Amino acid sequence: MHDTKVKLSDVVERHTLTVLVDNEAGVLARVVGLFSGRGYNIESLTVAEVDPMARTSRITIVTSGTPQVIEQIEAQLGRLVVTHNVTNWTAAEAGIEREMALVKVAGTGEKRVEALRMADAFRARPVDTTHTSFVFEITGNPAKIDSFIELMRPLGLVDISRTGVAAISRGPEAM
Amino acid sequence: MDKDDTLQGAALTAEAAPESMIQAMTGAEMVIRALKDQGVTHIFGYPGGAVLPIYDALFKAEGLVHVLVRHEQGAVHAAEGYARSTGKPGVVLVTSGPGATNAVTGLTDALMDSIPLVVLTGQVPTHLIGTDAFQECDTVGITRPCTKHNWLARDVNELSRILHEAFQIATTGRPGPVVVDIPKDVQFQTGAYHGPELVRHRTYRPRLDPDLGSVVRAVEMMAKAQRPIFYTGGGIINSGPEASKLLRELVDLTGFPVTSTLMGLGAFPASRPEWLGMLGMHGTFEANNAMHDCDVMICLGARFDDRVTGRISAFSPGSTKIHVDIDASQINKTVRVDLPIVGDATRTLREMIRFWKAGRHQADKAALADWWKQIGQWRTRNSLAYRPSGTVIKPQYAIDRLYELTKDREVYVTTEVGQHQMWAAQRFKFEEPNRWMTSGGLGTMGYGLPAAVGVQMAHPDALVIDIGGEASVQMTMQEMSTAMQYDLPIKIFILNNEYMGMVRQWQELLHGGRYSHSYSEALPDFVKLAEAFGCVGLRADKPQELDDKIREMIDVKKPVLFDCRVDPAENCFPMIPSGAAHNEMILAEIDDGPAISEAGKMLV
Ligand SMILES: Cc1ncc(C[n+]2csc(CCOP(=O)(O)OP(=O)(O)O)c2C)c(N)n1
Ligand SMILES: [Mg+2]
Fold it and tell me: What is the three-class DSSP state of B331?
């Protein structure tokens, strides 16, 4: 009798969710409070107004949990009075995810040359240069940024600032 | 996951509205006007600096009864009692800071039990917000997790929209409490008032109509069921009395057995043969076993609470589960179901009946007869039985007598939290919805007395009884004074076992009988206490005097505090210990062996 059921799985999956919300006071606190109150993870969270006329903001959340927890997170987000809609990109598999990072690397000599060479390969752009340091700007999916950071670590990595993920659907349709 | 657009009648846009629908007035006047436009007749409140302009507007208002409570928690519980017994939203007005924080327990209680409340809080003037001003607290921050939604109304021209949205959100979809926090300067300012017909929320569209394809599948599953059961909950009550009627009709058609959660008692008449009693931790043997062994479970407006399911992995392992709920987030939350249906209970039941009839479905009569035979065997276990006594009042006996002596009246029952609550739920038989008000989700001691105040306010001629415990009633006792002030003849029937009985029971069963701080020491003399309030105090010590004393309680046209001295050692059975399965109930030993009640008594 159980074959119609969604598979119960203990496997923790990483999902990117976007939530279109009314941009009213306290809306971010509602979303963050929902996650902390119910014990859900937030790996990254970005929020910005996307339509000043309609006063809507898009929140992109990278979270992790079992499929059952992810389903609950979507339902709980959908239940917030301020929510227009919730999209799960990992399930939809039609989304583009991008993140930007600023990465500061300090060093001289061979390491400095190597850092610049790597940055070039990753299409990371130096946005600040001194004789002893670079700040690189890099955009891509989070995994690409992770690998770039790992490569920079032995080359004099000093600081990282990441924006968190923004996501949008492919093709002509709106989300 | 777009929200369904099922609300009827789009509102006019403000620009297109005729001038007459928009009027200039102060924020405080808007509050009064909005309440009246929403059909509010009663407010439960307590004044303070940050709501004085609203109290001033109230002073001049006609047609609004304000009930002055003695503590803001009492105001919220009273509003809950009012709401649950009428189906209308309860309205509360309290001041900033301590007024708002005192309301938090009631808000959480209402959120857990899905009770529609509109709670208005005063706030310090906008220019002082964030400065740690006198009686400032972050009310919207504090109440965000314990409301369905909340607002800080910073602009007087937004206030009427917010107030009307507040009523819409509190009362539609899955009902719940909302808070509107209104700074004092906004109450003084003048702005444009919009009537309710001009307001339509931008995003909020609760889904009410079920997916018909799913209803058809549900009905087919029901027709094929061998061992079906209806597992019903507070959603049936919240959906309105029509849902209870339709449930009866569906049971007429199918002949299936019915059990209910604590919240759903009264939706199905306890006198009918299909009624199995309450399920869950203190549910009947037959209800829990039927849940465990059923092959098709039809859950209507219940949410698989842990007090209902016991150990999830052992919960009704062989059944196909249909879950009807108005709140999509309840589906697959703790228990995976086979057929989810998101929709309002009334509408879904109506469609179920329609398709059952249209499909000329018949229940599987032979299978059902076997199922009822099995249930009959479980019933013979007589799981609510207790060992009677001729010398001490058994709490079960007290509830039975209270029921017998009041059942022919229009009676509303509220409760506190503890053993007395469970005995009341097990033994008091409800035939109608909206007659039973208890704190289910939060389990708030102190709920019942103020809730009774709210119920009696709404039903002045009814018999309103709070079945309480001696510990619980002391939490909100001061509302006796409110009952006196408004001539509310509520009956506080205390099963006084001199213990926080439910705590004592767990300590006896699970903590080696170490009764750590569960004895109710230094109890007040409840009779004298009643008299101090100007109420009537009654006491019964012996089973023989109980009936007369109960009759006296009923006849007195005043609030009564009834100190019913019961066996302090009695335990509430059946009981599914936390983490156990439905078929692992502990039952009372009443025939032989050392009964737990006797063993417990020696330890008192
Ligand atoms: C506000 C609050 N505090 C604590 C508890 C935990 N608790 C549950 S039942 C109970 C004892 C209640 O005692 P009483 O009112 O005498 O009822 P009895 O169980 O004896 O019938 C306690 C302390 C609670 N439910 N609510
Ligand atoms: Mg007690």
Answer: coil
State the catalytic residue, choosing from B502, B553, B575, B585. B502
The pLDDT assigned to B98 comes to 98
Query: What is the tens place of the pLDDT at every residue in A32-80?
Result: 999 999 999 999 999 999 999 999 999 999 999 999 999 999 999 999 9
Q: What is the pLDDT of residue B354?
A: 98
Query: Taking the alpha carbons of A38, A39, A40, A46 in that order, is the dihedral positive or negative?
Result: positive
Distance, in Å, from the CA atom of B446 to the CA atom of B544, rounded to the nearest integer, reads: 30
Q: Each residue of B443-498: pLDDT tens digit?
A: 999 999 999 999 999 999 999 999 999 999 999 999 999 999 999 999 999 999 99
Q: Are B83 and B457 in contact (CB under 8 A)?
A: no
Distance CA B126, CA B183 (A): 6
Residue B85 · residue B133 · CB < 8 Å: no
Total residue count of chain A as it appears in this document: 175
Indicate if B134 belongs to the active site. yes
Q: What is the DSSP string of B229-286?
A: EEEE-HHHHHT-HHHHHHHHHHHHHH---EEE-GGGTTSS-TTSTTEEEE-STT--HH
Q: Do β-strands B149-152 and B177-183 pair in parallel, antiparallel, or remain unpaired?
A: parallel
State the amino acid at position B593 in one-letter form: G
Give the residue from A136, A172, A130, A127 showing the smallest Cα distance to A157. Answer: A136
CA B274 from centre of chain: 24
Cis peptide before B574 (omega within 30 of 0): yes
Q: How confident is the model at residue B579 (pLDDT cuts 50, 70, 90)?
A: confident
Task: Name the minimum distance, in Å, from the CA of A97 to any CA of chain B.
Answer: 19
Structure tokens belonging to residue A117: 């060479």
Asked whether the beta carbons of residue A79 and residue B149 sit closer than 8 angstroms, the reply is no
SS3 A103: strand
Supply the pTM of this predicted model.
0.94
CA nearest neighbour of B201 among A83, A152, A142, A92: A83
The mean pLDDT value of chain A amounts to 92
- Ligand 1 pocket mutation pick from B282, B416, B417 by most atoms within 8 angstroms of CB: B417
Residues recorded for chain B: 604
